[in-house]
Structure formats: structure tokens, C-alpha cells
Amino acid sequence: MSARYQLSGTTAVEISAGIESGIRTGALAPGAALPPVRALAADLGVSPATVARAYQELRQRGLLVTAGRHGTRVRPRPPVAARRSALRPPPLPGARDLSRGEPDRRLLPPLGPHLAALAADTGPSVSYSDAGVLPELAEVARARLHADGVPAGELTITGGALDGIERLLGAHLRPGDAVAVEDPGWANLLDLVAALGLRPIGVPVDDEGPMVAGVAAALAAGARALVVTSRAQNPTGSAVSAERAEALRALLAGRRDLLLIEDDHAAELARVPLHPLAGATASWAFLRSVSKPFGPDLRLAVLVGDETTVARVAGRTRVGAGWVSTVLQRLVLALWSDPAVDELVRRAAQSYEQRRGGLLTALAEHGLRAHGRSGINVWLPVPDETSAVTALRDAGWAVAPGALYRIAAAPAVRVTISSLHTDDLTPLAAALAHAANPTPPPGFPT
Ligand SMILES: Cc1ncc(COP(=O)(O)O)c(C=O)c1O
Predict the structure, then answer these.
(1) Pick from 47, 54, 138, 413: most CB atoms within 10 A?
(2) Which parts of 129-258 fold into alpha helices (H)?
């Protein structure tokens, strides 16, 4: 815990408010350890039950996490507005930042011409009463999903894949319910699950997707929803293969008690074919985002699913935010309708594949097996994440510690390959090999 931050309060509400304020101001940094319940209770002169209640409330809201012998800590990205700098320490000056999981800006299609065309279109403005999903956009989206084997279903639009997942989980589950998530899995999803007061059940992942035994165990443990990343899984790059899809579909067949959510965030950027699970369960939703091919600032994803599931999401959106801006929908429609944009996305996908493949090959030459079947990240198992991240930082490379993405999975680091040059491969692979096989300390082995 920060030596500067004094926890205070005599009631659970005051103690939790003090901790939340410390997180907000940055005095309690992400990952900071809080005192054990008994120690803080003795410090504040209150009963341990009072402190336990305060911690419990913050845990249910996803601000704190309790991890066995590591005690209670601030979550890496708690859902309260903190200074962004507190969320992710900046890499050292001069270091190459491979920690962010962002697409390469230079490979995104330019939006200018399509925005100019939209600006020149002086049709009537959209009013509250006629806003909603643009039929033309729905038609193009359906055709694209149909071509990839996603079953026809009802369709709505959300403000991105994560917004869709939040709306789905919010509509189907209640705080305390269990959600099966990939382990390792996307850090934002783990944060969202915590912020919704849901319980994550980790499902081990290999290069072919979530492992069947892990999904079966999560179902047996009472998971009410399962979130699967179709391709470019973050952080491992895994993609659901045809065989895995078949086995998972057989396991899930006809289940009425489970909401199946598929996240195809990489969409056209993924060079591996899609093998959807959609339709295996009675409640299902398939999300396709435009963030990776067109840029994360276009907050839009298409959600298809069974009638009840989509009606819940669309209905909840209608009584809240209303709809996803029609201006944005028209922009995405224009991008999807332009063959030149398709070609740019195809080239971007090819370029990521080359960089990813280049790094995997360079690592293999050091005898290291890393993971990255698709997408913009490579996942490299290491014996100790802290020392690996530090050694890499000292060598001029910023990478993300695997702890952000793991529940019970083994330690690793995530390397974003989107901005790598060919010249980077040899020195980066050498630095990663050093981080993954640190020189043993001098002296006799024990
Ligand atoms: C697995 C996964 N899903 C979804 C997203 C983002 O989707 P969106 O921007 O549409 O919310 C990301 C972004 O990195 C991701 O890694």
C-alpha cells in the first residue's frame, strides 16, 4: 500500500469511501495491497466485520480483488475514473512500447474521404422517433455474417463488442452469478465481470480455443454465461478451430440455462476462418466489432442472436442510451461498401500475420514456443513475470505482464506485434529469450 495514504473511517461506508477516494486520486495505485482485515480493524479501532464489509462492497463493485496469499489489492483497472497515468505506467523514455494491444494506426483505412462524403450528404436529420438500426447497415452486416457461417438471427447494433457483452451480461445475469471466461483472457472483460459483481470461472485456452474439459467444468460449476473469443483471442492469439467448434457445439447442444456469447472482435482482420458456436444453445449472441479493422474509435459492433436475447439488449438500449449514432452507422456502412477498404484490411491482416509469424519463428530459433495463431499479440510463457517485464524494460522493450489477463493460467508476457519492423525481430527475440530463460543466480543449485 502507498505509505502516503492513510485509510480512515469508523463505519464500513466511511472506510470503503476512503479507499475509493484513494483509488480515484491515484494515492492507492492499481495493484496496491491493502492491509489485512484484522490489522486495519485494529488500526481504526473498529471490528474486523466492519472492515470485511467495506472490502466486500468494493470487491463486489470490482474495485478490489482478493487473491489468496496475496491478500486484498486494488484491481489493475478499477472501474472508477482515475488519472489515466495511474492505470498504466508509461514506458521508459526511448523504449519501444509493445504493451498496448492496439492496431497499427498506419494500417487503418483513412476515414477522411468517407467522412467528407457523409458531410456532403444533406438528407433530413434523424429524429428520436425514427432512429435505430439502419436497415441498409443491417443488410450488409447480415450478408457478411452469413458468408462466415453465422446463423441468421435477430440483429442489433451496440457501441462496440465490450458494450454488447456488458448489455448481454446485464440483461441475463444478476450480481453473484458465475460467468465462464477464457483463462488467460481479455483484461477488460475480467474487469467488466468484476465491475458487474459477477463471478468469473476461468476456462483454460489452447491454440484452438477454450478447452472442452474446462468448459464442461465451468458448466458443472454453475456458469450462467460463457464468453468465447472466436479469433485473435487476447492475449494468446488462439482461434476456435473446426474440431474444437464441433466438440464445443456438442457439449453445449440444446442447453437452455446458458447464455453463449461469441466475440469476433478481429473480424476481417483475422486470417483464420471463423468456426462459430452460435446457435448451439437456446440463448446466444454473436458480436462482430469494427474496432480492429477500422480503428477502436468507431464504437460499433453488430450483435446477432436469438430473438429473446437480442430483444433484451435492444430494449434496454432503447430505454437508456437510445441507439448508436446513425452518423456512425452510415460511416461503417460506407467503409463496408468500399472495395478499396476491403483491400486495405486484407493487406493489414497480411502484414500482422507476417510480423506475428516472424516473431514466433525468431523465438523458435531460441527454443521458445510462444503462442499467436491469429491477431496482433504473441503470448510467451515466462517463469516470473515481474523479472521478465523488468529485464525487457531494461533492454528497451515495454510488454504487458500476463497477470492482467490471468486467473489461474501460468505466468507469461503479452507482446503486441502490430508495430514491429523486420529489424526488430532479432533483438526482440533475444531480449524475450533472456527474459524467459533468466541467467540463474551464481552459486550451487539447491
Ligand atoms: C477480445 C477482445 N474483444 C473485444 C475488443 C474490443 O472490442 P470493441 O472495441 O468493439 O469494444 C478487444 C480489444 O482489444 C479484444 O481484445
Answers:
(1) 54
(2) 135-147, 161-172, 187-195, 212-220, 242-252
Report the alpha-carbon distance of residue 318 to residue 27 in Å, rounded.
38
- Of the candidates 213, 210, 212, 202, which has an alpha carbon nearest to the alpha carbon of residue 233? 210
Residues 147/339, Cβ–Cβ less than 8 Å:
no
Q: Is the pLDDT of residue 446 over 70?
A: no
Phi and psi at residue 126, in whole multiples of 5°? -85, 135
Cell 543449485, located at residue: 445
Distance from the alpha carbon of residue 291 to the mean position of ligand 1, in angstroms: 7
Ligand 1 center–CA 161 separation, angstroms: 6
Q: Which residue's CA is the nearest one to ligand 1's atom 5?
A: 265
| Residue 124 banded pLDDT, cuts 50, 70, 90 | confident
3-state secondary structure of 284: strand
Amino acid at 291: S
Query: In this structure, what C-alpha cell is assigned to residue 439?
Result: 541467467
State the distance from the centre of ligand 1 to the C-alpha of 274, rounded, in angstroms: 16
Ligand 1: lining residues by beta carbon, under 6 Å: 101, 160-162, 186, 229, 234, 263, 265, 289, 291, 296, 301
Mean pLDDT of the residues in the chain: 93
Q: Which percentage of the chain shows pLDDT scores above 70? A: 96
Q: Given the CA of residue 232, which atom of ligand 1 is nearest to it?
A: 1
Contact (CB, 8 A) for 370 and 422 = no
CB atoms within 10 A of CB 252: 20
Q: CA of 206: how far to CAs of 201, 211, 304, 309, in Å?
A: 16, 7, 26, 29
Give kind and range of the element (H or E) at residue 149: none
Cell numbers 436469438: residue: 306
